[in-house]
Write a structure and sequence with these properties.
Chain lengths: 399, 284
């Protein structure tokens, strides 16, 4: 089987660190110019250099999105920006507008050209067109089916990147300007207001009309996708928090590794599915992989989004001598709660909290201030960036 | 620089009408229009009526319209269909870049016009695309100032959207069918949707290949443009009654920028926001 890449979103440097430490092989993010998600924090050029160095030290890669649809005024500074990205040593840009591809070629950029999903490639002809422009990897449209993936791979040999997990647009990417009409924000320049998640009235019935898509989750088809020749599995979510990133990335990392060494069991797959479903705020399905999604792929009455409070704390350090972890609290927890620790180099384990101390070593019964530092006795050595969550499912070892 | 329609001897040769109903052919002929664009059966979304190649007239300049993002299966079907393409077809207007590869592979000499609804928004990108195609349809998501810059700086004459419904969203999903099945409603392939906060209305049209939401107001894009820079003025009379279509053609002759009640000028005079920081504070 192919070696495959797990590609994670990074909304800022902290999330980039988490993604790479939790097992992503590469990260993608936007700079402060020319990137969809115009309202995310995004990276300055200095931060891009720092991120690139950090990733390269771990022998991992960074891809920068330059994927807006350019209007006349946006063209100013594009060439200089691409030169600066090249000097920063990034591994690839993710672009859709042909002028970005042409400009990168003109400046003889060393970075690779990845075609954004905004270009919605679903057939070999479109893939060949972009291949001739110097594109080495195509991020296929989210609508790509098994057959599309197979045929494009077979006919072009291009690297293929597919979305594996996260939110879906109702529209084909790039083919929606509902935001432009409803909010005057340009969807193809990062201003998408997710109008497809709003409710409409219609002449079909008195009930509100909804076209909201459920999320994507490819766990059940990962093995098949690897066999079809998918080179990179992309997790969506540049606006997501560190707990979501860590949970999704570590889950897919372990799945991919087990698929590659042929040790994945059905139980582990089911457990992974439960964990992913739990940390998401919407339901998810494999969407277009086998067939065009029917009504089961959508929501019809409201957004039905849940706020997840499973993330209890982030490990800051571990006192080896006293077997005590120092944790930054994120959601409320109490003495007596059964929790789970997970991390990039940690076999997930659970334990019942016997004691909690505040920063002054005073015993407390509840940690209820997000951001507060607490100490908890834990017999197993933990590392910075490990995480504590509420225990929901049986799987991890009990200590 | 003059709006060509305002001239005494109008050049109807530059009008390209999307035929969305057979009755429109006669109306357009009466108005001396000779360029017709036919949504091709099985390869178009957003049109109630599509046409098989054998249904197309031979006496006019006939163009095929293929606006789907083509999956592998459709791409293969299209390859078979285009192998038998009659020479009477003058050109193909398409959304998917796969067509460029396919037309080259089949060595077809028909005119190639790229119509990526939302992407032709600057002259440099359009010029890059013009290395592969004969013309490009300018996006309706940009301002008058941007349109003028584009037409003046592009290497070949372009297609300008003059009048009609424009798509605001294209989904591969059958959004109306899914909704109707969920609530056990009778099957309808066209619906009128309204978003209350923005007070914007959309017409949703579905076929088996997906759903298109059109902004419900007809765009009237009458502008003063250099005639030599324009290959075609595109008209999309989708959902217009015959009388309305006649009226539109008649009044476009006079360069009127208000013909029907449900009409606006799209984004010609309304610049969209790139980043939230561009929104004036009081409106945030």
């Amino acid at each position: 089987m192919n070696q495959v890449e797990l590609l994670a979103p990074a909304g800022d440097f902290e999330r980039l660190q988490i993604a790479l430490l939790y097992g992503a092989d590469a990260v993608y993010f936007g700079g402060q110019e020319f990137s969809l998600r115009a309202n995310a924090k995004n990276f300055t050029l200095e931060e891009i250099k720092k991120a690139t160095n950090f990733a390269h030290q771990l022998k991992k890669k960074v891809y920068v999105t330059v994927n807006i649809v350019f209007h006349e005024d946006d063209l100013n500074g594009l060439e200089e920006y691409l030169k600066a990205l090249d000097e920063a040593g990034i591994d690839a840009i993710i672009a859709s507008d042909i002028i970005v591809l042409a400009t990168a070629k003109k400046i003889h950029a060393k970075f690779a050209l990845h075609l954004s999903t905004q270009s919605s490639v679903l057939n070999e002809g479109a893939a060949k067109f972009y291949q001739n422009l110097g594109v080495t990897r195509i991020v296929l449209a989210r609508e790509a089916s098994k057959k599309d993936i197979q045929k494009i791979k077979q006919e072009t040999g291009l690297e293929l990147e597919c979305f594996a997990h996260g939110a879906m647009c109702t529209s084909i990417s790039g083919r929606c300007v509902l935001s432009n009409y409803c909010t005057n924000r340009d969807a193809n320049r990062g201003g998408c207001a997710q109008i497809c998640r709003w409710q409409f009235t219609s002449d079909l019935t008195e009930l509100p009309f909804s076209m909201t898509s459920k999320d994507l989750n490819m766990i059940t088809h990962m093995k098949e996708m690897i066999e079809l020749g998918v080179n990179s599995f992309k997790v969506e979510g540049r606006m997501r928090g560190i707990y979501y990133i860590a949970t999704v990335i570590v889950t897919y990392r372990r799945l991919i590794d087990k698929i590659l060494n042929n040790t994945l069991t059905e139980n582990e797959k089911e457990y992974a599915e439960k964990i992913l479903n739990r940390c998401a705020n919407r339901e998810s399905t494999p969407q277009f992989f086998e067939a065009i999604p029917k009504k089961e792929g959508q929501y019809f009455l409201g957004r039905e989004e849940l706020s997840n409070q499973d993330f209890l704390g982030l490990v800051k350090s571990y006192d080896e001598k006293n077997k005590m972890v120092i944790l930054e609290e994120r959601n409320i927890f109490h003495v007596g709660d059964t929790v789970e620790f997970f991390g990039p180099n940690l076999e997930t384990f659970s334990l019942t909290l016997s004691k909690i101390y505040d920063e002054e070593d005073t015993p407390i019964t509840t940690a209820n201030h997000p951001g507060m530092f607490v100490k908890i006795p834990v017999p197993i050595r933990l590392q910075e960036f490990d995480m504590m969550r509420i225990k929901i499912f049986d799987k991890g070892n009990v200590v | 620089m003059a709006y060509p329609l305002a001239k005494e001897n109008m050049n109807w040769n530059k009008f390209l009408v999307i035929i969305t109903d057979k009755k429109q052919i006669e109306i357009a002929r009466k108005a001396r229009i000779t360029n017709f664009l036919f949504p091709l059966k099985d390869f178009c979304v957003g049109y109630e009526k599509t046409f098989a190649i054998k249904e197309l007239p031979k006496e006019e300049n006939t163009y095929l319209y293929i606006n789907r993002i083509l999956d592998t299966e459709s791409y293969e079907k299209l390859r078979i269909l285009l192998k038998e393409l009659p020479a009477s077809i003058k050109g193909i207007v398409f959304e998917d870049f796969g067509l460029i590869t396919l037309l080259e592979e089949l060595n077809l000499k028909q005119e190639k016009i790229l119509y990526q609804t939302h992407f032709a928004t600057n002259h440099q990108s359009i010029n890059e695309n013009l290395k592969f195609v004969d013309s490009v349809v300018i996006s309706t998501d940009i301002t008058e100032e941007e349109v003028i810059k584009i037409v003046n700086q592009c290497d070949k004459p372009l297609v300008y959207f003059l009048y009609g419904l424009v798509p605001a969203m294209y989904s591969r999903r059958n959004l109306l069918t899914n909704y109707e099945e969920e609530f056990h409603l009778p099957e309808k392939k066209i619906a009128h949707l309204h978003e209350n906060i923005s007070n914007r209305a959309f017409k949703a049209i579905e076929n088996e290949y997906g759903t298109v939401l059109y902004h419900a107001k007809y765009v009237n894009g009458v502008l003063s443009l250099p005639d030599d820079k324009i290959k075609f003025y595109l008209i999309n009379p989708l959902q217009l009654e015959s009388e309305e279509f006649e009226k539109v053609l008649e009044e476009l002759k006079q360069g009127k920028n208000q013909i029907l009640t449900e009409e606006d000028q799209g984004f010609l005079h309304q610049k969209t926001i790139y980043k939230i920081k561009e929104i004036p504070k009081e409106t945030k």
